[in-house]
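can u pls check wat happens w/ calcium ion
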Amino acid sequence: MKKTILSALCVLAAMAVNAQTVSSPDGNLKVNVSLSDAGVPMYSVTYGPTVVIESSPLGLNTTVGDFTSILKLDKASEVGAVSESYDLANAKKASISYTANEQTFSYSKDGKAAFDVTFHVDNNNVAFRYKVYPQRDRLACLVNHETTAYTMPLGTTTFLCPQMTPQTGFARTAPSYETFYDYDAEMGKNGHGRGYTFPALFKVKAADTAKKAKNAQPENVWVMLCETGVDGSYCGSRIMFKDNVYTIAYPEDTEFGGVGQSAPGIMLPGYTPWRTITVGTTLAPLAETTIMWDLVKPLYEASQTYKYGRSAWSWIIRMDASCNYDEQKEYVDFASAMGWEYLLIDALWDSNIGYERMEELVKYAKTKNVDIYLWYNSNGYWNDAPQGPRGKLHRMNDRHKEFAWLKKAGVKGLKIDFIGSDKQQTMQMYEDILCDANDYGLEIIFHGCTLPRGWERMFPNFISCEAVRASENLSFGQHDNDIEALAATIHPVLRNAVGNMDFGGSALNKFYSKDNKRGRKRITSDVYALATAILFQTPVQNFAVAPNNMTDAPAWAIDFMKKVPVEWKDVKLIDCYPGKYIVLARQTKAGKWIVAGVNATKEPLKLKVSMPMLTPGQSAQLYLNDAVSTVKIGKKSAMDITIPSNGGFVIE
Ligand code: CA
């Protein structure tokens, strides 16, 4: 009884300092927390005068209790300040400062602590996670489902990527985040019936008062939903649209070949991953967000200083047939001539080159200052992808043997393909592979895989994930080429905004084939290829530039690709409308800014490009209309640029 009175007093005390609203440090972003008559914890989010998430439920149904209703708010903690500065060598920003306000709401059911919800609110991000408490002697549970939802206001339009059907696609390897986005689509659909993958983008109509405000007349507020901090301790989630709300959903039973449960298991007390909501009146706070790293910590120390760089990759132009000794040697020489640090040798090297000759090839590459990445099939027993090497990584003992050989041979990294599941068991495999690889100084790229959720910081040897409809589809089908530029206008503010992205682009071939005369036709310009080398970010970038491009592509394009950076200090979004155009600037580690833009519309697009990071009067190189020229940056650091349809520009 005493306890109840005490906690009631705490509630009153906390409420007296406005406990039900958690505000950002600048006061513009607010989370409002309430309890419905049915005892359902509810939250809503406002940005300035605009409601961006309407009142939506929170809660979990677990095997130790149904914590979705008939709950009581026991306590709201005082609002605390969170702040941290940290460095990140393998991501879009090198030095990051995070400042947020934090508040925890504690709920009980039948007089026993059920869960806490902790909110972090910074000027552009809301994040929250649950802490579930032990129930009697139960110290572990499954979370059957969550009622966590996002109610988007009427009139909101969506930019979403439908979840793929498990056990479909090539050799039953789906889902792997490789569908097309819908651009500016009305709400109401549920993808292909199984919802949408993170990150999810919404355009919410700004409140009238916001439109009338002086000096700022935002028409829209952009909202990005994602999650972070997912490793073997939970599954990856997606969102389902049902009854006019988007609700958190867990993986489907059939993922991962039906192996492993879809409901995550947690120790008690235990946490769910952080769910994040990133908000801005432009897309800049989304493109520039670091929320997925602000909320996580490194899981281990790097065993060494990992090296990043540009990488040649034969497979995208020459496919499986090129994975032989002679052509890979040709590609080593090509990478060396480009001054690139890496060569990725793709599938089937184990049978076409073999382990012994691979050791020779790695040695030869070292004499040319080129380091090698090798492709691996993740299988396993969860799909039918036949390419070798397979069966080498999914069990610990085999994995250590393979990693020991890779280290001895001098290989620097692995590209691991065909994983296709977000189940907790799969997340544990990602974690195990990354942890073990670090012991051998190996860097990791995943393909046919999940979205990285904070992994750049959690795993120091993590390089990137595909988790995007990537360049392979440009080789497989013409339609992807016909709409290629669309992707470049959305990835930097969405998929690539939350994590490193292995797209494998910047082809300078006219056709996706070795002789550059047949196959799928590229309709984007050569400057577009250069622009996407800047727009798409990953610290080991596998480029589709081919040896023949040394002679059949423009010299200015090759010269640009020879010195293109892949390590960055900072990023600024200048202008963007997903599906139409984008202009974005990245700052090199040396401090130089490079501005890149792409036009995906059918007509030339005239833009007044404002580049406050450049100095008025400074001279710069402008790549535009398939030529390069020296220009002077105008007054107010602005420049009128007309970008051709399916073309781009770069200023450096
Ligand atoms: Ca793929």
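The mean pLDDT is 95.
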